[in-house]
Records
---
Amino acid sequence: MNQPDETEINERRDFLKTGVLGALAACGSAVCSCKSDSRQIQIEPGKKIKLLSPDGELVEVDESELRHIHKTVGVSTSEARQGIPGKKFVMVIDLAKCKNARKCVTACQKMHHLPEEKEWLSVKLMQDNEQGSPYWFPKTCFHCDDPPCVKVCPVDATFKRSDGLVLIDNERCIGCKFCMAACPYSTRVFNWDEPKVSDKLACIPYSPETSVPSKVGTVEKCDFCPDMVREGKLPDCVTACPNGVFYFGDEVEDVVTNGDETIRFSQIIAERAGYRYAEDLGTKPRVYYLPPRDRIFPVERGLEDKPEELKERFKGILDAGADEK
Amino acid sequence: MNLNQKQTEALKKFAPQIESYSRKAMMWVYILLVPMALAGYALYVQITKGHVVTGMRDNVVWGLYIANFIFFIGISYAGAVISGFLHLLNVEWRKPIIRIAELITVIATLIGPVYILLCIGRLDRLHHLVAYARLQSPITWDVLAISTYLFGGILFLYLASIKDFAIYRDATDLNIPGWRRRLYSALALNYQDHPEQKKAVAVSMNLLSIMIIPLAIIVHSVLSWIFGMTLRPGWHSTIFGPYFVLAAIYSGTGVLIAAMWIFRKVYDLKDYLQDKHFISLGIIMMALGGAYGYFTFSEYLTDWYSSEKWNGEVLTKLFDLNQYGWLFLFANVAGILVPIIIVAIPKFRKPDLITIAAVFMVIAMWVKRYLIVVPTLETPLLPIQDTRIEYTHYTATWVEWALTFGGIATFFLLFTLASKFMTVVSISEFETEPGKDE
Amino acid sequence: MGFATNLAWRTLLTIVLSGIGCSLSGQNEQKKDSTEKLTPRMKFTAIQRNGDSILLQVAIQVRREGVLQLVDYEPVAFFYLKDSIALSLGATLTNDKGVASLWIAETTLLKEDHNPSLFKVTFNGTEDIYGDEAEASFKKAEIKISAEEIDSIYTIKLKLFASGDEILPLAATDVVFYVKRYFANLKLGEGTTDESGEISFECPRDIPGDRFGNIILIAQAEDLEEFGTVSSTITQPWGVPLNLTDDKISRALWSHAPPIWMLTVFIVLMSVVWGHYFVIIYKFIKLRKQ
């Protein structure tokens, strides 16, 4: 076999490795005040995530490995305010497929380095009327076309881009929380105290497209992962969902995909009677829901194997349902 | 300046008030410093530890601070509208009370905005409000309106005091240190009661009193629009502008009555702040109370009658005695019924009773502001579904209470200091008193 | 499992499974030694595109304590094998999904001997994973794609054939027809080639295109046993042209610039009030001089 010199390969390998990890670190002491040892990226073995692959095999990924690959250095703030030309991003959430697996929530938290109690994306248990049966309702930011939050921002810290995304510049935000009061969907969260971020993370230059790292006294929210989207990759909640609940795409292209199934946006909205939550508020959300008709899972499945704290959240609704039975 | 007889008498009467601090006054100042020091510590805690030390969380993002903000801006109306209106209408009995009213305006307008600053997570970026100002935001409107209003209020107070400063400057028998006399001299702007000077001040006063009224109306409308412009039940109401304006004038009147009562007691000013002043202001308060009651009734009746779901959830909380029912009841009984009844019945129309009614009303108006802010924020469109109690239900922490009482103490302290610097009744205003002139 | 499959892993495994036709399992039979070094699994596939380019892809995983793990950010080297001589094609890193890929032009290969073409990928191993290599071979095939409008129907005509030593139409083979989209390709049709290796698809008229109405159409015969995945693309102005003026953000309550009326009201109000203030201040100044 005609193999390249052993040492050469090793050298190249070291170079390549430094390249990838160096980009992630990208926190030369000039960029931000980091501790000197923070340039040395150490991937401490974290929790292993086990997932079932389609051919029935368990695949495991180290959580810390997942963490260091996404959300590194984003584009500049002025670039982040522009939006990706010619795009109008849109999300379709199929309520019939959701069983509160909460993989979207945990994936979002991982990718944005959020603590467990901070949910940019949450799964609510909804019951439209007394007769209606409860259903799981994943709720992202709706990235409204007439965003009440952006209207009220006094310093242009939260803004609407040409591609439809509503983002926040955490280096501009003064923390008046007016946007939180104005958002009728309780989408936004506030950093009430100093966020617990590792030194490693604190070194990463902030970009409104990555929303990382969090900053005390500022507002943050679901951003549709614009850094991923810019590269043509789907947001993390979309790819994390085991049931293909989330479809994401470009309204201009009229296509949405959940990573597995790619469909025409206008067609699925027409066929499945897609709707926008609280349409009458006139906020024109960019997130559409497909009604929970012909559901795949009984709603109770959403509580199986869940911690007690989580079950507690939905007590009122599911108990009432059980009583009627 | 030549003083007429009445003015000379008045100056004599008020001289001890501005000449020195009595022991009692010093005690009072020390007492006030206690809550202020506590508030200073609370502020330190909040700045170093973040807003996590308050009761505010992701659903209830605003709490006591915003209620205090509305409250203080509200009572500032005492000077702006009451004295502005009375000046324009040239009501004779206004003269002894306008100084108090204008002091309330300036002091309350200084304190109020501090509370909105306490709500801001990044005080280090406050300059962004100017550097990146967005005209579409009601907060920008507020920043502009309140600073304009504060400047107007200070001008108004100053204009009405120029003649007094000239009097203090020229009152040789006034036992004050030299630096104060020089300060009065500077502030008096060489006012010598020349006809042109008289005219200039009178014209300016008229201009300002015309302007201060629409300005005050704009300020509180803009403030109400911070709430009214959102899509929230109990806030998103078209009458919020006039409702807030009326509530502000109403509570301003209450504070004015209370302040008059206190000064009358402390400085023994029965001759100047007479029963007729209390009764006249009481009647204004009653009329405003009626109008305010009408707005309140109209607001809740329409919400309740149309029984829209989201609105209904807030109303349920307000009407439920286990939730906000008692506070709601207090806000409406003490805030509307009591002042109207006390003033309406001639037998009760006495300074002491009117003052008690006014004090209750002012407290009730504060409670009302709290009821506007908190229950609405506790009722988002989507169910909260959070097991953390602090995220579902707002409870103010000691930090917020300390800063609230600290603000009230500051209000009293500034008032006390002001009353040691200038007479609480404008001496120069006695010049045109008919019949008693030289 | 239907669609109730795990998307995160599907992304990984689609790549693995899509080119299975020409893949060779790279598992070797090395014995485990005492340090518990792990043996990697390598799945090596190739996609032939437009008759002139080849995409080599390898997915590397290890089985650790019974579960598969991705081997990410590790270098792999690709080779072209000719008469037991390995010619280096290049080296890349595996990505976050443990997949390394390399595009090569067909001209890279030696003309006289490329049917079937034989490729090799080597992985040097890490501290706890053995090095390994895998080979893949495929015969050359191509899709000829042509577009024409027939009776006002946009029609795509395809001909699938093996293009090695002699041209042989591939009959009864499944072909899928896509339009390229930003995140994923949208399937517009699928069918089976006739005995001459031909098939035609109708392209809908309402597919949004770029500024000029261009759309990129893709025809693909996937996972063929001898040929791997064979793919061809064509760009046609059959889409609905995109109106780019939408990108300009107008004056609005929610945009950066306020509506004109708001600006006007603001300027008028502020100048009236502050104008008065200045008049009054001017009067003060005059007062001092009197």
---
Amino acid sequence: MTTSGTGRGSKHDPDPGMPREGTGWAVVSYLIGGMVLYGGIGWLIGRWTHIDALFPIGLLLGIGLSLALVIFRFTRFTRP
Amino acid sequence: MSDLGVVMTASGCHFQSHPSCGYPAPGIENFYFKPIFTIGGFEFTKPILLMVLAAVIVLLVFWLAFRKPKMVPRGIQNIGEMGVLLVRDQILRPQLGSRGDRYLPFLVSLFFFIWLMNLWELIPVAQFPATSKFAFPVALTLIVWVTYIVIGIRHQGPLGYFKNMAVPPGAPWWILPLLAPIELLSNILVRPFTLAIRLFANMLSGHLLLLVFSVASWYLFSATIGLLFAAVSFVVFLLVFVLEVLITLLQAFIFATLTAFYISDALIPAH
């Protein structure tokens, strides 16, 4: 019952960066977020400049960036 | 195929209950109900009734269980303690550790309320999962969303929490401007959106599957070879039913687990 006080990370608490049950869903939400954001930006600019290819390019960029995000966020904790 | 066609034409109308005598395919219209009664324009429908019943049952069970708690639990207190311990040890502790125990009542009520609302799908007479009406998952998700954002702001301060939500830990600085929007969008919008959709879509599809196969086994039932088709359909119905027993539990579990995960993200900065 260590709910009061400063409440920042005692040693018995799970490491917030470690993969837990929610991690898989977090990865999914990053992938969706990346696609929606950069796909959306690509789509908007493509509409504006009449270059249709910008939408798929944005989607791919979004997937790539969210993969990078997943790697940065969830792999560093496996190193000693 | 021709066999099936013959059976269909031979026995399609044997119940004479459907005006067109075709297969009454279940669809989205099965998710809309005539109001039981109306108060000032507010239509009280079956899903609302099921939701109220679920809330009352959860309240009643836990009130009875912990009305006069004893050191050595007896009767319904055993069930109550099992439920609370299940949520604490399987959902809350793995995500939050012992510091999360103050959120135990929230998670226990969330888990059992959702489970019961899902479970109505499998209970005769009720046989409709209240959570397959999108408004219920949305309302529950809004509660969770507001909860974890308020917790985050209270524990990390508005700026600190915003930084924690926008800046992914572990990423080099030069790529941050590209990654921060994804992190922010995923934390603020995608999380609650997927949380609501997951519960809603799973329960909707489950109910639809049960409808398709139960209606099919009724429709194909006849004294001819159609009996075989009806039997196959009924077996599939039973299999789907067993699957749904699992899914009702699983979806409530996932919803509560993710809620605990989001609360832990708001409680403890990820770096």
---
Amino acid sequence: MLDLGTYRDMMVKCSHCGLCQATCPVYQEDQLQTHLARARVDLIREALLDKALAPGRRFREVLDRCLLCGNCARTCPAGVRADEIVAAARSRLYGGKKHNAVRRALLKRFMRDRGSKGLLARAGRIAHKAGWLPEELPPPSPEPFEKRFRDRIHASGKMRAKAAYFVGCATNTLYPDTGEAVIKALTANGVKVLIPQGQVCCGLPALAEGDLALAQEVVRRNVSVLSACEADAVVTDCTSCGMMLKTKAALLLPEDDPLKPQALALAAKIWEVTDYLANLGLVSAPSPMAVNWTYHLPCHRGWTPTLDEAPRSLLGEIPETERIEMEYPESCCGAGGLFFLEFKELASALRARKIADIRATGARTVLTQCPACRSFLRTQLEGIRVAHPISLLAEALGG
Amino acid sequence: MKGLEKDLRRLVPKERVRTDPEDLRAYGADATYYVRRGNPDAVVLPETTEEVSKVLRYAFGRTIPVTPRGAGTGLSGGATPLKGGIVLDMKRMRQILEINRRNLSARVEAGVVLADFHRAVKKIGLFYPPNPQSMTVCTLGGNVATRACGPHGVKYGATGDYVLGLEVVLADGSVIESGGDVVRSSAGYDLVHLFSGSEGTLGVITKIRLRLLPMPPAHRTVVVACETIEQAGDTVTEILAGGTLPAMIEFIPQMAVVAMNQYIRPPLTTQGQAYLLMDLDGTPDQIASQADHILGICRRMAVLDIRVIEDEKEAQSYWTARSNLGAMLLTVMKKAVNEDVAVPRDRIPEFVRGIQALSATLTKVVLGIGGHAGDGNMHPTILYPEVSDAAEDEARATIEKVVRLGLSMGGTVSGEHGIGFHKAEFLSWQLGPTQMELLKRIKKAFDPKGILNPGKLWLDGR
């Protein structure tokens, strides 16, 4: 149930080989051993299990300065899942009380209705207009995705598969264009899309703040809703939601939770949308598009091995498009969900490097599946389009 | 240490001087964490030679120990600050300053990560062969300081063979430049190669000039399954004696293949007791003739199976698995201690038999054997199914026997990891009292106060 105590054996499996240095986005910027999985895991054990170190301000910084991206876990030859250990440690240390009551109440509200309803969305728009929010947060869309699409959308032509669409908060509220493209690309390729009603936030923001109870609450909601849906697969456009549903959701529930088996079964059906379509194969031939594009690989990619290749191969089927690889497509953009609000300097430094890398390609379009990357990069890329890869495919399919 | 933090922050910007207990713990050890840890008093992250020089001048004046560190992947404890003091994390000095295509040379800062360097030179058709298995993260400075090597050693030699020149900050803070962009030099004592392998005990390496080669146009991976460990050892010697020099020949025991199979696609069958993983390079014609020759030898040796891997992705999965092997052993064992005795190549079969005989006498730990068989650098590895005092005693006694066995064959206590503290007591077994005395006098000449990485190479550190 993401109980830190159960991770002790895994913690001592860390051989301290240091190979996690190769893929940790935070370490790559900070270049400080303390901000690396092998040190974090030791410090967590010493502070929270062995009580050999008082968990003070610096300890909390070490704990918070982690994107939970899981790249270290994917790199670790000994199978130490440091991202889970960090999440469990936050839960133990903060117990859902990391921030003040107002921020907690806002988060709770947002997670339960994906920020698209009533006062919260209106307040968001007003705050945005007034310039009270960081420019990296785009204004909530006047018409959220869930207002435009509901229930089911039939496949055009012969139905090849039936997929439930998990619409993340960002797509629902900020980027309904992505959702529209998902529907277009799936249905055009013979996939009937079901949009289960009652889905809520995936829970990652709560997990990141160590609020296990809130994360469990939304996980249970989503598991019930998505499991009730008779679909061959559950598709998401957001790599972070995908990671949460595939690798973390079941993990959060206690062993005796009645929804645990369903959560595990659901995890096996989760797909990122480009990965899903690349795997299924296109039946609808995309029209030529004279577009050059580059691809930014989100940090939350370790949950499926083919995620990095999927958008590249899928969009490779659009005639006349040109892919220009940037030097480091996998390096972090700095956003990390809402991480950039807490660690501004780190986030800006990471972003500056990313922007330079993107500009060096000369591409006019940057594609990435992560809405946080999209909004964080967008403000620094005037004249360059930033979008989800599925949008380009949908356009080539005449969407 | 009173006032240390304040003093250091006058020399280096304050965010690059760390003294919080969390940071000090993070810098207490390298990959020998479970063997021994130190307690530094401060961590400094210099970005320039000048900053390194300032810190050393200060430390020299106050006789404060200084332990330089690269990526902390060392397997002999070279970067462990045994006597406290200052750890210098060199990773922020990470500029590739120049790649000179016309001179086949490069100039880099010490903190450049080896994989980044490989990538940069490959992009313009050049090749830097050393490939220690931590290459995705380890630094060139650390490689030079330990004379690291890796599987390419069999054909291309070790890091030391590629170092043309060094910028080094001496104990008192003075900066010297030794060697240059010339591929040969007969100008007096060869300080460049004295600093290579000195493990931070003679000075702090800040910049490196390296020799490069043209990138071989093609390569091909071959896997050979052997019926017994002995057969694998014999086959290596036969291949080398037959006049073919593969770019890499790795000796991998069955147990390791089982672990490696989580990376290898499709997984390897595990019917052999040992495997040889080889890489051939050159022009396609050269590779074809090397492959013919090796396949002929393997058939004559009646090995179980030979596979030439055509698919590049599949081949890469073998080498990734090989790189991860050390840490992967911990998925099946409680603890692993990796040794790196090297023996003359014609003694490999004999060494392997000796290890097998020793292994049969053990009850608390397991002794496995693998390594860079092509250059005689073997990695006998002590594996602990359970950790206990009795297991530790048996492990220590076994390591000693392995070292003595290697030395009795004209080998060396360390082929590539360095001495650090982990093998400090064995160094004198190899060198004898007269050479040890000479080493100590050299150390004294460079570091009269004994502040540079004390406790390494020999136990009292002076």
